[in-house]
Backbone:
């Protein structure tokens, strides 16, 4: 449950307050310092803490847009509890329109990270130490890889009841049981007993309007399920698959 005062990187945020906390990760070879902003929205009353992350891969922009639109439309202010929104985690890759960071590493294979490691491991370490200990649940927004478009889907460890309940509340068109991948954000958070689901839609470097709306609607439904808000869009058809496989073109 939410503490009386939330502290992130030395910034104290009281119930009912909003704040932007900048996490200083590193600087570019040009000596340009790039901070990682965390947008904090707190309700007046006690409740769970939900993390929303996008852009862990720099060329996957649909998740960035989902969170950005929710912020600009003022949909993330909870009636109780707390929302932590990080629309763009991999600022470095985003600037260069690439999946990873400038040293070629994939942040989502670098968890739990090391403070003195590569840039990818440093970003991972910051997330695991400054953000994850303060949350109860999370949604990590992703996009299909280059030249591969994913239909809106939610991935999680659906042989566990908590993950399945969260997924049914989100109600994406498809729910795919997905094993934990070592080095991923989801795996590292799971080790800390913090359930994080992955929502994927569309393809790299392209906006998928249908999928973006599915991500917004699903997040609002999850917020209602967690008691962060009173209303949400109606649930459409949502199908669960415990097994899946790729069919590849010759």
Residues:
């Amino acid at each position: 449950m939410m503490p009386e005062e939330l502290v992130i990187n030395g910034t104290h945020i009281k119930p009912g307050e909003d704040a932007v906390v900048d996490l200083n990760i590193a600087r570019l070879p040009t000596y340009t310092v790039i901070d990682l902003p965390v947008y904090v929205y707190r309700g007046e009353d006690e409740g769970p803490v939900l993390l929303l992350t996008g852009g862990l891969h720099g060329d996957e922009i649909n998740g960035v847009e989902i969170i950005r639109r929710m912020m600009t439309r003022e949909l993330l202010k909870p009636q109780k509890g707390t929302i932590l929104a990080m629309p763009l985690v991999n600022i470095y890759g985003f600037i260069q329109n690439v999946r990873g960071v400038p040293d070629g590493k994939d942040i989502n294979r670098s968890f739990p990270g090391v403070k003195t490691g590569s840039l990818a491991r440093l970003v991972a370490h910051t997330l695991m130490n400054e953000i994850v200990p303060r949350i109860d649940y999370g949604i990590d927004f992703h996009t299909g890889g280059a030249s591969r478009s994913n239909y809106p889907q939610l991935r999680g460890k659906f042989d566990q009841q908590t993950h399945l309940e969260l997924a049914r509340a989100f109600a994406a068109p498809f729910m795919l049981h997905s094993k934990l991948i070592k080095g991923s954000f989801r795996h590292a958070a799971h080790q800390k007993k913090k359930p994080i689901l992955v929502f994927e839609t569309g393809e790299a470097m392209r906006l998928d309007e249908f999928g973006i709306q599915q991500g917004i609607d699903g997040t609002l439904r999850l917020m209602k399920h967690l008691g962060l808000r009173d209303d949400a869009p109606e649930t459409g058809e949502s199908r669960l698959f415990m097994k899946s496989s790729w069919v590849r073109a010759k």
In short: The radius of gyration is 17 Å. The helical segments are 62-72, 91-96, 119-131, 161-170, 185-191, 209-225.
